[in-house]
Write a structure and sequence with these properties.
alpha+beta, 2 domains, 8 strands, four-stranded antiparallel β-sheet, two-stranded antiparallel ribbon, 43% helix, hpI Integrase, Chain A
């Protein structure tokens, strides 16, 4: 069972779309490698049709546990506050919103598709913003899974857990990252991929190299090839 989609399988997925919006949704997920939450948050004003870029906004909410007595930060396993020493029978939570944004290039074919979609009045106005797709996360997942069924694509296995999953928006992000590493797995290539994907940690990006590569298998087979004609 496969762990990721090949570009030709994503192409079949795109062709299985029944309208321009769904085709564009699938194409942008793969060709930009963005998160589905980032894609559905893109407004027309975030797309620069002249420069060929899309500005992606990534919102992340983090919840901190604090001591109700002194306000010190607590870990999930703390029984006593490390600062004031009081028992942690009550705690309060503090939610913080982290905003990051990155501007990503778009390939010419995807840009042309975006121009066509916008010119056809595809975008939807929500809360004063002209949203490119105008759908929620759940609908985006439905579109991808329905197109995968029509295209006859197989389910995919998670190489770390062994669990089997349907083709989903995140699997298109995985496919982009794997394709990028197969194309360029140098140090510079991995660094640029980390920036493009918006990973805070390099380790998160590096996991795709394990998925993409057959280095261990090739290394092992070469051990027994020496001396053979």
């Amino acid at each position: 069972m496969k762990a990721y989609l090949e570009p030709e399988e994503v192409s079949a997925l795109e062709k299985a779309a029944t309208n321009l919006r769904d085709r564009l949704l699938i194409r942008v997920l793969f060709h930009l490698g963005c998160r589905v939450s980032e894609e559905i948050a893109v407004a027309v004003e975030d797309v620069d049709l002249v420069r060929g870029t899309i500005t992606i906004l990534h919102l992340k909410r983090r919840v901190k546990l604090l001591c109700a007595n002194c306000g010190a930060q607590l870990g999930a396993t703390h029984l006593f506050c490390p600062k004031c020493g009081n028992p942690v029978d009550k705690s309060k939570t503090e939610e913080r919103e982290h905003r990051r944004q990155r501007t990503l290039p778009i390939d010419g074919e995807t840009l042309d598709l975006l121009k066509e979609y916008i010119s056809r009045s595809g975008p939807v106005v929500k809360n004063g913003r002209k949203m490119v797709f105008g759908i929620n996360r759940h609908r985006a997942w439905q579109i991808v899974t329905e197109c995968a069924d029509r295209a006859g694509l197989p389910k995919l296995v998670n190489p770390e857990t062994g669990k089997v999953h349907n083709v989903s928006p995140h699997k298109l992000r995985d496919a982009f990252a794997t394709h990028a590493i197969k194309t360029n797995d140098t140090g510079d290539g991995l660094r640029l991929l980390q920036v493009h994907l918006g990973h805070a940690s390099f380790n998160t990006t590096a996991k795709y190299r394990k998925v993409a590569g057959d280095e261990l298998k090739d290394w092992y087979e070469k051990l027994w090839q020496e001396g053979k004609s």
